[in-house]
Design goal:
Structural class: alpha+beta
Number of strands: 22
Strand order of the largest sheet: 16-17-12-20-21-22
Largest sheet: 6 strands, mixed
Shape: elongated
Helix content: 10-25%
Order of helices and strands: HEHEEHEEEEEEEEEEEEEEEEHHEEE
Low-confidence stretches: 20-32
Number of helices: 5
Distance between the termini: 100 Å
């Protein structure tokens, strides 16, 4: 066979194969895993005490706010739960010219309990997310659906394929508070007392910082009598309250108060973040380095037992998520 003819036939077959591969390589796939393109945000939720990604279990939707490097608003995207699940909790961001962008991600903000000023016509510094509390005394009584926050600082997008992780933080908590007397014969009526959490955490900015000094008064969504077997004092009777609350910040004044309804007398008025944050310090003594704020941001459910004196007039100790905090070595009550 002529050498030139042979070479020609080989080249023709190679060109044919290249054309076939080019036409079919991406037409049959149903997602971008096999033919990746575009810029994606991968949402995760590992800011918990187990350090596992719990986004598929808890994150319902996503609202992505995009700003340029100077903080000027660019666009907003809402992503449904169905779309998140279909793309393995990845969000594709299209139609961005090459440049540097910041990304603010929220999940759960479309609930009626929240009011948002997004800064869609201004800058990232104009963003505010506020709890809708009852005026004039800023009392709030109601369930708080899961609220998550994430942020990516300015990064460069050039139109090529790229995936960046946004690790979310949970901004909602729930406290189950039990108030008992160490005298196992004492009986407490839940209608004789009122419990409140008072903290100025009702408004957050685009960086998840608390930006208001106005106290929000959180009231229980549930209360009742409770009897349980205590490891320290045996069978005890008391009162149980359930109180949802937004993000607790260690440097803010977070108070938990128990009062008698008839007289208004306070049985205790203590720093909530300080004392439940002590559990974070206990984690550190056991070998896991964790700050008080890191603990508050990772833990979202607390069971707190308040032990009152025999005469029901004085708080003598606490138990937070099964950790005892005693007045002689932990508490300054």
């Amino acid at each position: 066979m002529d050498c030139k003819k042979y070479t020609y036939n080989v080249l023709r077959q190679l060109i044919f194969l290249v054309c076939i591969l080019t036409m079919t390589s991406c037409t049959w796939v149903k997602d971008d895993y096999d033919c990746p393109s575009g810029f994606w945000l991968k949402l995760s939720f590992t800011t918990n005490l187990l350090d596992v990604d719990a986004a598929p279990k808890y994150v319902r939707d996503a609202d992505v706010y995009i700003y340029d490097a100077d903080g000027k608003y660019v666009k907003h995207m809402h992503v449904s739960n169905e779309a998140l699940k279909a793309n393995d909790y990845r969000v594709r961001v299209d139609d961005l010219p090459e440049g540097n962008y910041q990304f603010v991600v929220w999940s759960g903000i479309n609930d009626d309990n929240y009011f948002m000023r997004s800064g869609t016509e201004n800058t990232i510094d104009d963003f505010r997310l506020s709890l809708v509390a009852n005026m004039p005394n800023n009392h709030f009584k109601g369930e708080l659906p899961d609220l998550f926050y994430g942020y990516l600082p300015a990064l460069h997008i050039d139109g090529g394929y790229d995936v960046r992780e946004v690790n979310l933080m949970k901004d909602t908590n729930k406290l189950t508070c039990l108030v008992v007397s160490i005298d196992n014969e004492a009986v407490m009526n839940p209608y004789d007392y009122t419990m409140q959490i008072i903290t100025p955490n009702g408004t957050m900015n685009a960086y998840n910082q608390l930006v208001s000094n106005i106290d929000i008064v959180y009231e229980p969504v549930g209360m009742g009598s409770v009897t349980f077997e205590d490891t320290e004092y045996g069978n005890l009777q008391g009162i149980q309250y359930t109180i949802p609350v937004l993000r607790l910040v260690n440097y803010k004044n977070n108070r938990i108060v128990l009062m008698k309804k008839d007289s208004g007398q306070k049985l205790f008025d203590i720093s909530l973040a300080e004392y439940i944050g002590m559990v974070g310090k206990l984690y550190t003594t056991l070998g896991r380095e964790i700050t008080v704020q890191d603990y508050l941001d990772r833990q979202d459910f607390y069971t707190v037992v308040f032990y009152l004196s025999d005469d029901l007039e004085r708080l003598i100790s606490l138990k937070v998520n099964n950790w005892f905090l005693r007045s002689n070595n932990h508490l300054n009550l």
